[in-house]
Amino acid sequence: MSNRIACLAAAFALSAYSEAHAQSDMGDVGDAAPVAEAEATPADEPVRDGATVYTPEDFARFNPRSAQDILSEIPGFSIQSADQGRGLGQASSNVLVNGERLTSKTESLGSQLQRIPVSQVVRIEVVDGATLEIPGLSGQVANIITRGGGRLTGQFEYSAQFRPKYADPKLYHGEVSISGESGPVQFTLALSNNGFRGGSGGPSYFFDAAGDPLETVLILRKRGSDNPKVAGSLGWDIAEGTKLNLSGSYTREYFTSTDDEFAEPEVGQDRTRFLGRDLEDYTYELGGDFQFPLGPGSLKLIGLRSENSGTFRSQALTTPLGGTDDPFGDAYRQDTVRRETIGRLEYDWKMLSGDWQIAGEAAFNSLEREAFLGTYDPADETFGEAPFADGSGGVTEDRYVASLSHSRSLAPNLSLQLVIGGEFSRLSQTGPGGLSREFWRPKGQASLAWKPMTGLDISLRVERSVGQLSFGDFLADVDLRDGQDKQGNASLVPPQVWETRLEVTKTLGVWGSTTLRAYYQDIEDRVETIVLPGNVEVRGNIEAASRLGFSSNSTVNLDPAGIKGAQLDIFAIYEDTDLPDPLTGERRAFSYQRDLGISVGYRHDIPGTDVAYGFGVDHNRLTPYFRLFEAGVARDGPTYLYVTAEHKDVFGMTASLTLYNAGNGRDYLERTVYDGPRDTAPVLFSEVRDLDIGPIFNFTLKGNF
After folding, report:
1. Which segments of 163-212 are extended strands (E)?
2. How many CA atoms lie within 13 A of 680 on its CB side?
3. Principal place where this protein is found (predicted)?
4. Residues of the chain with pLDDT under 50
5. Cα dihedral across residues 115, 117, 121, 127: positive or negative
6. pTM value?
7. Cis ω on the peptide bond leading into residue 378 (within 30° of 0)?
8. Domains in the chain, please, with CATH?
9. H-helix or E-strand containing 542?
């Protein structure tokens, strides 16, 4: 079906494009050839009314290398990446390039912005999204206006990380990219590796129901991953208002994780336990869009195809010490293939003193999984393997979305954006308990943007959205680390959310800027861990839940206070979530969610030098988690301190060195495990895990060529 739709879309595009240009050519018959004029570019267009404008010169003291570097220094602005759910949907990222959204799903927003050299950035306009012609945007949006450099340019960034304790060094993280143009054609090619190394170590203490010690386990954890990727994009300005964009990427992922444990029980034999996990997969993505004039407006056709295929393995082996008992353990493997095909069209036109858009999208997603379980055989020291039926099967989703959008000015300082639409989806599952279901869901939003005075922007948005389900929740899964497995649930339904969001941005003059947000979500069918009859734990739906949140993002320039070149960046967020516990019925917060976050950073670019330094603190608090047989709370950190130093001209490059976790943040866990359902069963044991992370040294070198 997806191939037929792609062919029809292509045929329609060619037909419509040919007809539009044929009509244009007929109108020129018998006329003298017009004098050639230079085609207008976004850089030549006037600045949008009400926009706050920044140029690269405003950030010269930071010596930015890319558009990403500039955006990270805009006062009170924080980058929001696009929703990475299935399909494309309307624009959701708060960053545009020349008024256009970035549609890649496997390329991070930061990576794409990093490939735009600062030499091509003309200006950045920060406006309220509701004043734009792009449906789905509200609040602060940064539109990066660029001009082609007319020559080949390159960028690179290399990053290394060293941890004196536990983790291996990270030596192969970075990216190199080139971009250029030839006439109407622009291109970008990038090679990168997103590497990660992590680790921790320390004791975990176990206690019985009375609080008496059971055993102490010494743990050493190591994590590592590499994600080499090649990515490219091509743009072709065919004619005025007609453009073709193509993009593609290919990524390999290699992930390994090991836990080495040594247990000293109060009674019985000492033992060792090894838990190893690894993942190897590949992902490719091909995408493109074609925009051209049609009738009174402009038609854009967007297509995307991606596939992810890989194998995940997990093994746990326990070896008793000082006796004759044999080692014992289990193994789990799953082979997974995910595919996505998307076709989307957007038609924009002006009518009745406003901007209109009609959009339609078809997205076809699938997951295929084969799972296997094994038991360790001490005779031949191997893990046997047998099919795991409950964890094997497939899930497909065919989803169709349509919307009509309208944007208009109600007054010189007041704009309105309305979106009405609907979604139809068909979910089908093969394997144990498989079934097929269909869902119809209305969706839409209304946004107001008000600028009551210079330096003050207020936006209000009310939205009804339809969430998406994780295909993995339809199938059973095995967790060998803590022995908490989950069954699959074929009866899951997509969640629906009513959200009201208020955003206020105030310029503080020479002191900087601040943005305040408040939001409330009324959630129907939220997905959480629930319990089915027979004490079966699955991911399921909660009938009603809510989220109330507040956040602020401020940049305070300290020049007026007499500290030239210094600034404070302050971010804070608080959330109050609420749902009925599926087991006890008591009201509680969502499991394992950040409910408090604070980040304060100080940076000082010393005037007259290429040297900068800074320090800061990050603090995050997580809510407790709840499962059928256990409950607990995890604290990663929760507070991290850092100090950093930077030199902006090391043989023409920028070098920085950062010490992270200077305050000895920990990997901490408290949990209580019950001898049955936690609402009725007695405590079986409790655990307090307190692992040291140690200091983390990061070195970064970046430049242009």
Report:
1. 170-182, 185-193, 196-207
2. 4
3. membrane
4. 1-38
5. positive
6. 0.88
7. no
8. 1-24+232-370 (no CATH), 55-147 (2.170.130.10)
9. strand 536-557
